[in-house]
Description:
The first copy, chain A, contains 10 helices and 9 strands. The first copy, chain A, starts with 5 loop residues before the first strand and ends with a helix. Chain A is of the alpha/beta class. Chain A has one domain: 3-Layer(aba) Sandwich (Rossmann fold), CATH 3.40.50. The interface between A and B is medium-sized, with 26 and 26 residues.
Amino acid sequence: MPELLTPLSANRAAGGWQHRFAHRSAVLDCDMKFAVYLPPQATAHHKVPVLYWLSGLTCTEENFIQKAGAQRMAAQLGLAIVCPDTSPRGDDVANDPGYDLGQGAGFYLNATQAPWAAHYRMHDYVVHELPALVEAELPILPVRGIAGHSMGGHGALTLALRNPGRYQSISAFAPICHPSATPWGQKAFRAYLGDHPDAWREWDASLLLAQARDPVPTLVDQGDADEFLARELQPEALENAARSAGYPLTLRRHAGYDHSYYFIASLIDEHLQHHARALIK
Amino acid sequence: MPELLTPLSANRAAGGWQHRFAHRSAVLDCDMKFAVYLPPQATAHHKVPVLYWLSGLTCTEENFIQKAGAQRMAAQLGLAIVCPDTSPRGDDVANDPGYDLGQGAGFYLNATQAPWAAHYRMHDYVVHELPALVEAELPILPVRGIAGHSMGGHGALTLALRNPGRYQSISAFAPICHPSATPWGQKAFRAYLGDHPDAWREWDASLLLAQARDPVPTLVDQGDADEFLARELQPEALENAARSAGYPLTLRRHAGYDHSYYFIASLIDEHLQHHARALIK
């Protein structure tokens, strides 16, 4: 039987191991890479809960593991962190010259429109295929939190809200909160989902949260100097939906912080602690 | 009067600010960039001690600030961190096709040989010109520690050992400990200093440390899975010199760690605490 995971790199980090693997994705019909941090508590005889981290536009599986400084707290808490890529990849995968559509910009949804529908099924990949793989091949429990940044914050919120019971905790940095009403989201939704408002509603965190029936503790941090705040992110839409629905959202605004990884690195420990409270009993 | 510092970027980080600046270096006779983290304690009315961080081969002023995750502990301690580039830069600055000589590989020395001597004076730049600039223009005290990685670890050790009284604390990750006897160092020394063994001795940490008269608390961390350990780094030379000289060196070996920034990020907090013990009273 061929190995399912091809090791790309392994670096000791904070007492555990930062791995990168390649594998064949049946769902996406292409070769994919992902990163996983295994804390020292994860051994052949002991599995650990896991946080899925979804990155933003233009990122790969490497940005978070290099820039967030998350490994030390993950090691303290005993949390694994799985970081998928941000889209299907490869020469035969549809692409677009813009940074905000196509490869590097999968928006964590299942595309229905040509030429995207052939490979762009990041929802199914992140929610089903990748967890099944890492839970079978690595010392990782089916006890899952989900987090992300910007497009990945949209991903974390929508994937959790669409799949009640699958994630015990949610967090996001500077998420795209209302993509059906903002430019990045509209461009992506028009391409991937077509001009179908009903389809767009199914991938919009603020609209999904207004109808959520299975509340999960949700932490969102937003910098008030974020260059994309008003045009692309619109956290007030999420806040209003949570208020109407009585949803357990904690949304914090932080003076002076921008959209960069410096913001993430400044607060990642608090996000990991937020997830650990739900995932580690 | 023209501004001495041209702001390149400023990102709020861990309650302080991660800055990058450009400036004209008279010593190097070229335009240079550097990064400085100012913790929240640094204000117009309150200056803070400073750690100089020297990066390794191929790096710029950006690697450490993006990958080490140092800002949170620096903010807690109230330490500024200044990160110079690793060589003079520019189209009219001598270069070499190899990654281990020329731009990105200044070795923190003053070159004496053509064509390098015209610009390659990183010792004088890091020890004198850059501190004078940041202490005049930013809320930074003349209370200095120095640290670095690989070629920058060599730099931290040699600059401190050559300049008694100028640095109150030293640390290094995986430093080149005995460059006059190892390939990277020999290639650089031959080019920058010529075939003059007496000149090489003046830039070799193990040889300098054997004769040090002004001991400074020195912490060195080395991974035992470092791919450059035996060929390029030779920490045992530094250890032997310290033992003979009775020098206060703490050299720790860490199982499984390699030469990457994951090693630095895993232990940077302990290095910052080491410096703070000497710099913050």
